[in-house]
Amino acid sequence: MKPVSEDFAGKRVLVLGLARSGRAVARLLRSLGAQVTVNDRKPRSETAEAEALEQEGIRVVLGGHPPDLIQPGVDLLVKNPGIPYRIPLIRRAEELGIPVVTEVEIAYLLTDAPLIGITGSNGKTTTTSMVGRMLDRGNLPVHVAGNIGTALSEIAPQLKAEEWLVSELSSFQLKGTRSFRPRIGALLNVVPAHLDYHGSMEDYVGSKKKLFANQEPGDIAVLNRDSAECRAVAAELDVDVWWFSRRESVARGLMFEEGWVTARLPEHRDPIRILREDEVRLPGVHRENALAAAAIALAAGCPVEAIREELATFQGVEHRLEFVETVDGVCYFNDSKATNAKAAISAMESFTEPIILIAGGLDRGVDFRELTPVFRDRLKGIVAIGQTADTLLARGEEAKVPYRELASDIAEAVERAHRLATAGDVVLLSPACASWDMYTSFEERGSIFKQAVHRLK
């Protein structure tokens, strides 16, 4: 029995934010008889969905956040994950003891499906996609939702108890959970990220740890043995822990051993060799994601043969170390999803060829000094864009990178990188920054990069 009532009939609910998940959860709660108000700071002229929601009986308040939306008698506030907790409406709700949750909490309360939740600073989308494909290939009923495609609340209530629901989960989403319980929870890695939102590393890690807060005996936690932060989290858990590791042998989980992707399980006397490491299609650091996905899928009961086939065929996800084109002997890769320094380092370390790096974006006050050693070891050139361009060029100068150039946007950066590169080089878009200073999303940034590369031919 889930610990929170699922009866929303007659409840007064404020949904804060009119993005996809906000619209989905508003419609879901209204269908259950709740009195729903949706609020967004965008004006009505920029909110095409408002009229349709109103026709469904949902009150829509736009153009700001009126303080009187929160008052005694409001039963629940469901917030868009990206809206910070410091805004007055949320602070007022907390003062009045009104629960403040994110859409994934509501979806959990209204589903019978077993959940697989995947979080981490980097690699979530690749791992989530692989898990879904492995389970599907193994003929296990599975749906992938959340940050990938469909909002959780659009699909979760329709699923049956034998259907797996696989979801990529951000720290923003997890921070707003109370009773959310995945049957399998996976923490891929933890590096400093989103500290402008969380305020501290402690709050960031604490939000990630909420993935495991409600797990029960019989549930499984999958963690990265190579991460000190993940090992510290595992020490606090009372459920079965499965590990994945690129560096060492593990008693339960997945690893690279003697050139093989190998599974070790206490109930099996001998290790299970799944396939040779050089047969895994994913490049570089994403092989860590492949191990994580295999561990999660195996924990869910996926046949080994299905895991083997997917590892041997899965080539990656758009904007995640995605091969784009070879032009004049130079290979171009789109890693626009790399929105922090650790992700960019992982991307650069995936190549042995000389790299022309395109990097830069939103300035969050990061000095990028951890990039200097890998710049020194890996880069032939750097083309910097966006608010952080000067800082990144300074790191390039410290690292004595031979070529250092400034570009006004992605299209110009591709042209400059093309002029610097020679046959055998790699041109890599791995920005180490969010896109919001110049582009609406990392997807838009990556798509523009790919278009610019195709124009070179």
UniProtKB/TrEMBL annotation:
This is UDP-N-acetylmuramoylalanine--D-glutamate ligase. ATP binds at residues 120-126. The gene is murD. One of its GO terms (cellular component) is cytoplasm. It holds the Pfam family Mur_ligase_C. It catalyses: UDP-N-acetyl-alpha-D-muramoyl-L-alanine + D-glutamate + ATP = UDP-N-acetyl-alpha-D-muramoyl-L-alanyl-D-glutamate + ADP + phosphate + H(+). It is an enzyme of class 6 (ligase). Belongs to the MurCDEF family. It is found in: Cytoplasm. It comes from Melghirimyces thermohalophilus.
